[in-house]
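Hypothesis: this fold can be encoded by more than one sequence.
Test: take the structure tokens below, design a sequence, compare later.
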């Protein structure tokens, strides 16, 4: 191995280690972390099961299912499985607490709320919401469930704060099938965009933000962009390359002297982009990356998009980024925004990059917190598991920031706001508490995963 790469490898391995002082007191911190969430649960048994389930989601279990988690705790599986799939506790109360914590800990005035559908491949037809539909993870249509996720991104960190299960029309039309899967009678068909607007209505107020972002599935419908505009939200949404736009900055065709004044024709955004001269592009340093400055080239223009009915939409800003690939070609991303045309390219680029953070959030939640490990079939169990997995991911987020900013007093238990110090993560309001010494599923090794957390045993 080249000595340069060997040196870099040793640096990376060193970064993947956490000292015993950082790990010490982990169980006590988890128990304290859970308290604001379990306050909404009526029964002591439910509160106990919440801690047990979170412990299992944070463990090294290969399959983080109710059965596997129960056996991890040397219990019969029925108790935890009933807690997840049969006991009617409010997952929405826990998610609201989560959003409030995220807003308080990570909130910045120019934060970004990001929406993204994510699919889970599933066999059979009985599991709630399963049908043959687009599965982004596999890159094709497949039998799967689809959840719509809402994440919050700031310069401090990023995490998922809410989710909804997308229920296709074929399901909502079949009441017998819905009843068998435990879908409440009040649940009607909602598009993925309507689910996103519901989550924005619920939690947008507690998440300081200036922007709403999403991929081209979210940005494709003009109606979704119009509804965000009507709510006073500023958006930057990716759109497909075949989106039709009319250039608002180009001079219109010459007037012939009679009839209506001619307008520039509608063109595809990729065709409009291909006709740009090289001088139109501006190179932007978006942020520091692991391998050096993260740069992109960008351009913007005032446009109006074609509506599905053949009309012309309101004024928007077309924003395009391009990045050179290994083979020398460019990868282009296209966005539409209702921002003021004078918003700097640097700000638009920051938001575009922030929107991609939700992929990191989903990867972390699936890989570290068991988001996709469930083996449940009914409506209640799906939402309960997803909610607890998002809480586990948020705990990992807090531990990651704690590991990056170790503090002499960080081994003591503290309120949820421990990482909200004014100066580089200095904890506020700490209350020392002696850590327990009992053997527990979270007690274990010093080696950590890529997010700087211990590989729980």
């Amino acid at each position: 191995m080249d000595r340069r790469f060997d040196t870099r490898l040793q640096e990376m391995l060193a970064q993947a280690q956490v000292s015993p002082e950082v790990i010490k007191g982990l169980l006590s911190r988890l128990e304290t972390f859970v308290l604001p969430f379990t306050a909404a649960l009526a029964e002591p048994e439910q509160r106990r099961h919440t801690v047990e389930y979170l412990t299992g989601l944070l463990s090294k279990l290969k399959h983080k299912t109710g059965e596997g988690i129960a056996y991890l705790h040397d219990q019969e599986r029925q108790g935890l499985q009933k807690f997840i799939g049969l006991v009617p506790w409010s997952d929405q109360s826990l998610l609201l607490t989560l959003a409030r914590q995220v807003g308080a800990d990570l909130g910045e005035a120019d934060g970004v709320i990001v929406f993204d559908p994510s699919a889970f491949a599933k066999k059979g037809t009985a599991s709630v919401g399963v049908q043959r539909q687009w599965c982004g993870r596999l890159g094709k249509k497949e039998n799967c469930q689809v959840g719509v996720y809402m994440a919050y991104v700031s310069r401090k960190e990023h995490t998922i704060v809410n989710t909804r299960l997308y229920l296709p029309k074929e399901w909502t039309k079949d009441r017998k099938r819905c009843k068998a899967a435990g879908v409440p009678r009040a649940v009607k068909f909602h598009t993925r965009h309507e689910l996103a607007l519901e989550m924005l209505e619920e939690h947008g107020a507690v998440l300081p933000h200036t922007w709403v972002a999403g991929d081209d599935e979210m940005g494709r419908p003009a109606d979704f962009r119009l509804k965000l505009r009507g709510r006073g939200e500023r958006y930057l949404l990716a759109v497909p390359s075949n989106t039709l736009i009319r250039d608002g900055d180009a001079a219109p065709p010459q007037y012939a002297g009679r009839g209506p004044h001619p307008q520039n024709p509608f063109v595809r955004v990729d065709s409009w982009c291909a006709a740009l001269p090289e001088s139109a592009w501006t190179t932007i340093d978006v942020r520091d990356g692991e391998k050096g400055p993260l740069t992109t080239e960008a351009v913007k223009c005032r446009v109006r998009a074609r509506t599905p009915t053949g009309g012309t939409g309101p004024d928007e800003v077309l924003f395009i980024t391009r990045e050179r690939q290994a083979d020398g070609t460019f990868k282009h991303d296209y966005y539409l925004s209702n921002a003021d045309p004078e918003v700097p390219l640097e700000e638009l680029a920051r938001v575009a990059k922030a929107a991609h953070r939700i992929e990191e959030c989903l990867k972390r939640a699936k890989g570290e917190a068991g988001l996709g490990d469930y083996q449940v079939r009914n409506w209640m169990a799906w939402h309960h598991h997803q909610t607890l997995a998002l809480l586990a991911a948020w705990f990992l987020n807090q531990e990651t920031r704690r590991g990056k900013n170790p503090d002499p007093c960080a081994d003591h238990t503290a309120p949820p706001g421990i990482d909200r110090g004014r100066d580089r993560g200095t904890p506020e309001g700490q209350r020392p508490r002696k850590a327990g010494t009992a053997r527990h599923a979270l007690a274990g090794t010093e080696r950590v995963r890529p997010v700087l957390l211990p590989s729980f045993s």
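Residues 407-457 have pLDDT under 50 and may be disordered. The first strand starts at residue 112 and ends at 121.
Hypothesis status: open.
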